[in-house]
Amino acid sequence: MEIKRDISKEMQESFLDYAMSVIVARALPDARDGLKPVHRRILYGLHDLGLTSQAKLRKSALVVGDVMGKYHPHGDAAIYDTLVRMAQHFSLRYPLVHGQGNFGSIDGDNAAAMRYTECKMERITGELLRDIEKDTVDFADNYDASRKEPMVLPAAIPQLLLNGSLGIAVGMATNIPPHNFHEVMAALRHLIFHPDAEIADLMKWIKGPDFPTGGVMFNVRDITQAYTTGRGSIITRGEAEVISSEKGNRGEQIIITSLPYQTNKAELIVRMADLVHEKKIEGIRDIRDESDKDGLRIAIDLKQDAIAQKVLNALYRHTDLEKPFHVNMIALKDGIQPQTFTLKSLLEEFLRHRFVVVERRTRFDLARTEERIHILEGLKKALDHIEKVIKTIKESEDRPAAHAALIKQFKLSDAQAHAILEMRLATLAGLERKKVEAELKEKRDLAIYLRGILEDKEKMRTLIDEEFALATKIYGDERRTRVVASAVHTVSDEDVVPEKEEVVILTEANYLKRVSPEEFRLQRRGGRGLLGKGLKEEDHIWVFARANTHDDLLFFTDKGKVYQTKMYEIPAGTRTTKGKVAANFLALEQGEQITSIIAVPKSKRAQEGAALLMVTKKGVVKKTALALFGGVRRSGIIAMALDKGDLLRWVRVVSAGDEILMMTRNGQSIRFRESQARAMGRSAHGVRAIRLRSNDEMVDCEIIAKDTKKQLVFTVSEKGFGKKTLLDEFRLQARGGSGIKAMKVTAKTGKLVAAKIVSNASKAEGTDQPVSEGFIAISEKGQAIRSSLTEIPTHGRATQGVRVIRLPADDKLASLVIL
Predict the structure, then answer these.
(1) Are residues 551 and 409 in the same domain?
(2) Which end of the chain is more exposed for a tag (fewer CB within 10 A), N or C?
(3) Rounded distance, CA 374 to CA 122, Å?
């Protein structure tokens, strides 16, 4: 018969039926025994087959087939996969199945086929099935009504908290972490007698989840939130330590001895290797998996110059060596109602189930005890009148007649009369009579005890507490996951990078590298210097700057934009390496050229009145507060608006009271107070600093600090000539003038390249030690010389100086930095 039905209503009802089926019968565990239907059926199937922890191992295929045929009419693969997981020591904190054979690995390897592996129960699994034959739980028909299966297991231990659960249903999911046996049982024992206990009280015992793979867990506040609300995120890490290499002087090693829960070891190692190949993590020389039967061990060999903590930080940041565990404690209440549980409500639900099980078990035991007492009372009555009993039986025609006569004559029940008829002659012996009397007394005492448990809740609490204490003694073990009370603290890269002075080199093609000054050995002035290799053909040194490794670096471009990074984030190189393109870590626009690099120490950024002085190629100057350049975004920000055809070339840090000294390519200079350049916003154009001739342009800008003790100006030219000149020879002028001569520029010297303010002391103040102030001069083709400033003579403004570095005819001095 055809029935018409609205499709939207049919879809709605069918989907809801499907959703509830997934939620109740597949994905979510029961809060009482902590098991999903498939887990429960596998364990009951093992019980059915007699595969207890004392039994011999049997083929997994036998168990899977038996469970599938009797209780779980689904695919054998689903049943076997579940059985395998219950046998994995890295998946369950307390495995429920004892497996022999290949049951998979933490590397994600699959288990062997079920025909090869064998299994039986673990000892702790017996606690979930204990007293199941004593009418402790309800049974229902299996899928074909051919037999009965338990709706829930009697569970003498809180399996859901001990092993946790993971499941995805329709519209909801659960993710309950595993816990330590000692801690959970201690909390339960406290809750039995203190039902008003708060989460904080329970957490005196339960410190947090305890994962089978160990690791470290952070922040008690996050753990408390997860336990209080049933939801939360807890940061977990694998345990790692830095040790000296076992292979001599070849750098340090990072040794990983545990992983966050549910982390695949093989995939983690592959991820680490990929990060090394992609240059996202630098300093790793080799990665090896040295795990064996004694435990997990991943060895990471570091390069000699690598900073171990910095590498470890990167591993935490980019791999699953650190990952959050998202707690979502959803389970079925009474096997039918999905509910989000808190730690306390989950413990209460188990305790409620435990009280029901113990009460039903006690009633069952009392009924059996009373039945036995009834029989023993009949036997005792028969023994007290044994002669009459024997005579009555002898005079009866047959067994039914004897049965009826005994009931009538001695006021016995059917069961008592039957027991007397089954009684052996040996029972008539004196000792056997005493055994009957002793057993009767024992059973009567037991009945009193059992009735006392049922009538007095305090006695039942004590009994359950004693059972928990015994279970703890048998199964309790040490915590594996270490809990750190504070929030996760990653030592910043800056914390582990040594503070030291280095130089950063930028080429005209925007190649950057960070180099130690030690790369440039000390030489006498006038030499040829050290040849710097590695530059691309037709590339030239463009900017040469000094900074501390902890300084912020601001990169100003010819377009008037600024970008920011840390000094230690610039790739380290040597004098002969090419460096890396700045666009790899700075979001430069097409054709944008970095023209100035300025180091900003933290102390300078916080200094009141600190500002940046910007100077363009055409002699325009602008002062902007340094605070406006805090937290420069990756895509950069506008630093200065430029006139058409002008380029931003120099930026310096300036403070109130400082003076400014500017130099031009033709050897002109101007010195004026910083107050003459008023503060402007980032988008302003600036004002004229010096009036330039048509064939001239700006070449350098120096700040004369108000409290400086440096009284000399060191100038160098394109062809390697240089000199020191007394600062006093450069008089103060008004901003915007034509300036005065700073150096005699000739065909021999070439145009002026750079000018720096330096010290005029030959010895450090208060000591006999010579001043360590020196310089590095570098040519466009990378030829460099490092020398002491004491090598450079002092001459007047109008002189050309002495040879600082001897350069080939086709090379020019490009930059100068003072150390």
Answers:
(1) no
(2) N
(3) 39
Q: What is the CATH number for 265?
A: 3.30.1360.40
Check: CB of residue 475 under 8 Å from CB of residue 94. yes
Domain final residue pick, 109, 133, 154? 154
Distance CA 206, CA 224 (A): 10
Rg of the chain over Cα atoms, rounded to whole angstroms, equals 43
Q: Against a cut of 0.85, is the pTM above it?
A: no
What would the two tokens of residue 318 be? 């980019």
The number of distinct structural domains making up the chain is: 4
SS3 of residue 63 by DSSP:
helix
Average pLDDT, stretch 701-722?
85
- Which of 443, 475, 507 terminates a domain? The answer is 475
Quote the CA–CA distance of 18 and 553 in Å, as a whole number: 60
- Element at 439 (helix H, strand E): helix 430-455
Listed in sequence order, the residues at least 6 apart from 658 whose beta carbon sits closer than 8 Å to its beta carbon are: 673, 674, 703, 704, 705, 706
440 pLDDT higher than 50: yes
Pairing relation of β-strands 611-616 and 698-704?
Answer: unpaired
Average pLDDT over residues 65-79: 93
SS3 228: helix
The reported pLDDT for the residue numbered 804 is 86
Pairing of β 482-484 and β 216-218: parallel
Q: Mean pLDDT of all residues in the chain?
A: 87
Q: How confident is the model at residue 378 (pLDDT cuts 50, 70, 90)?
A: confident
Burial of 233 (0-12, 13-18, 19+ CB in 10 A): middle
Instruction: Give residue 618's Cα distance to chain centre.
Output: 53
List phi, psi (to 5°) of 286.
-160, 150
Q: Which domain holds residue 119?
A: 35-154
Residues β-bridged to residue 234:
325
Closest CA to 96 of 44, 31, 23: 44
Alpha-carbon dihedral 64, 70, 75, 76, rounded to 10 degrees: 10
**Taking Cα atoms as reference points, which of 627, 586, 634, 636 lies closest to residue 607?**
627
- Is 568 among the catalytic positions? no
Q: Which residue has the tokens 């809180």?
A: 158
Q: How far apart are CA 294 and CA 195, in angstroms?
A: 43
Q: How far is CA 193 from the centre of its chain?
A: 38
Which among 116, 316, 563, 568 is annotated as catalytic?
A: 116
